[in-house]
Amino acid sequence: MSVPPLTVGGVVEHRVEVRRSKRRTRTVTAYREGDTVIVLIPARLSKKEEAHWVQEMQRRLLRNETRRRSPARTSDTALLARCGELSQRYFEGRCDPEAVRWVPPMRTRWASCTPADRTIRVSERLREVPAWVLDYVLVHELAHLLVPGHGEDFWALVHAYPKTDRAVGYLEGLSAAAGWGISTED
């Protein structure tokens, strides 16, 4: 069933399709499929409850998408500042990059670090990942400022970040699903 789209500041944001399911008993979920928002709801909900949840899920999607496009996702300066925060938290401030910048998508890597000039480059493919995944990539590259290779001492530093294994799994899945062949080892 199609529902009128959410209007924000007089501008129509997107089409909405509601899918009712008899198997779905309590949860409501929403996601984008192209330019359409798909809202999955239990079949037993009334029309009034449906309207409430459609509006609520549109708001949540918009909020999450806005958060993902925050200045931290678009600015090299914000990336550098985030590296400073992560360096303080996980490396006692010992990792101080000279520059951190977004770069066009890399063919085989998520990011790279040149310890000689203390620069970090982050693939634009990471602009849309959750913040904890981007933080892992930044921690990984910051660790290269202390240890250039990928030996045990390097991984001991990286594993100070508590979501390392989870983020590696996320990135491996993302790369596999998109067919990019990007390794998390580099």
Query: How many strand elements?
Result: 9
Strand order across the biggest sheet? 1-4-6-5
Arithmetic mean pLDDT: 86
Remind me, CATH topology of the largest domain? Zincin-like
- The CATH first-level class of the largest domain comes to Alpha Beta
Question: Approximately how much beta-strand content do the residues carry?
Answer: 15-25%
* First-residue to last-residue Cα separation: 46 Å
- In the predicted model, the low-confidence regions spanning at least 5 consecutive residues are 2-12
Provide keyphrases for this structure:
single chain; disordered N terminus; alpha/beta; elongated; Zincin-like; 6 helices
Describe the structure in your own words:
With 186 residues, the chain is α/β, with parallel strands linked by helices. The chain has two domains: 2-68, no CATH class; 71-178, Metalloproteases ("zincins"), catalytic domain (Zincin-like, 2-Layer Sandwich). It is built from six helices and nine strands, in the order ββββββαααβββααα. The protein has helices at 47-68, 71-74, 76-91, 131-144, 152-158, 164-178, and strands at 2-3, 7-8, 11-12, 15-21, 29-33, 36-42, 99-103, 111-114, 119-123. The chain has a four-stranded mixed β-sheet, covered by helices on one side.
Question: What is this structure's SSE topology?
Answer:
Elements: E1 2-3, E2 7-8, E3 11-12, E4 15-21, E5 29-33, E6 36-42, H1 47-68, H2 71-74, H3 76-91, E7 99-103, E8 111-114, E9 119-123, H4 131-144, H5 152-158, H6 164-178
Parallel strand pairs: 4-6, 7-9
Antiparallel strand pairs: 1-4, 2-3, 5-6, 8-9
Helix pairs in contact: 3-4, 4-5, 4-6
